[in-house]
Structures are given as C-alpha cells and as structure tokens.
Amino acid sequence: MKPDKKRFAYLAYECDLLSIQKVVNDTCLESVVHLNTYTPLFENQSTNEVSSVNVSTDSPKGFLRGVATENYVYALYSGQIGKNKAIANEVYVFDWEGRAVKRVILDRWGICISVDSNDERLCLMTKETDGGEERYHYYCYQLN
C-alpha cells in the first residue's frame, strides 16, 4: 500500500502479474493498471469424483515480494523454474501508474526485500541452509 493509503499494488506469486488499484472510497476501488506477460501453467489433477488443477512445476514463479514507497513499487521477481524458484536477484521498480522505471540486478539471490522511505537503499534478505540449520543474511544496496 502506498503510504498515503490512496493506492495499493498486488503482485502475483504464480505469474508476473502487477495490478495497481486506486482507493476511491471505503467500498470502491478503481483499476489503474493490470499488467502481466504470462499466466501460470496448470496440470489437471481431476479424478472421477473431483475436478482439480495444480500449478505445474514447469511454471515459472512470478513476484516473491513487493515493497511500496510514496514514489514507487519495488517487486522482487523470480522467473525461475524448478527447485530454486523461490529465490530471486531481479528487482523491478514501477511508478504508481504502472510504468517500469528500472530493473536492478543484484549480485546475490534472496527471498525478501525492503526499501527505505527515501528510495535510496534496498536491503535483500538471503537464506542459507547448512546442516539443517537455516541462516539469514541481509545485504544493502544503494539505489541512486
């Protein structure tokens, strides 16, 4: 959500969907932009008794996390297929009209991001597993 609470962004995990909504009043939203270039691949899991589909393991992951500031939406994008698809090193930056501002390629792969309110620093959280023990690390980057 934008800090002024007048807009919010929705990012999809199963595809590259970005949707920005404008809050008109307490009960009404207005779509600002709805962008995506691919939809998830599905596998039929139906039986004689139940109709069902699952997202295919061949389907690339979309956005893992998003962060909003007054000026931008930052989206950590995976695009990965297979075992390590829940990590990413690409961050897409959009303005609140849905226009792409820039793409940042990080030197590490992570699971989560945060950005300061001045749009100057981005922090990436990484996760390592060593002998069953999970370790988390934070790396910060200048955005300017």
Structure, explained:
Pfam families: TolB_like. The protein has a 4-stranded antiparallel beta sheet with strand order 6-7-8-9, with no helix packed on it. It has no helices and 12 strands. The chain has one domain (7-39, 54-142). With 144 residues, the protein is mainly β. It has strands at residues 7-11, 18-25, 28-35, 42-44, 53-55, 63-68, 72-77, 88-95, 100-110, 112-115, 121-130, 133-142. A hairpin with a 3-residue loop joins β6 and β7.
Strand fraction equals: over 45%
Radius of gyration: 17 Å
Q: Indicate the low-confidence ranges by residue numbers.
A: none
Q: State the end-to-end distance.
A: 23 Å
Shape: flat
| SSE order, one letter for each helix or strand | EEEEEEEEEEEE
The count of domains is 1
Quaternary organisation of the protein chains: single chain
What's the number of extended β-strand segments?
Answer: 12
Please state the structural category.
mainly beta
Helix content: under 10%
Largest sheet: 4 strands, antiparallel
Strand order of the largest sheet: 6-7-8-9
* Chain-averaged pLDDT: 94
Counted by DSSP, the helix tally is: 0
Pfam family, one: TolB_like
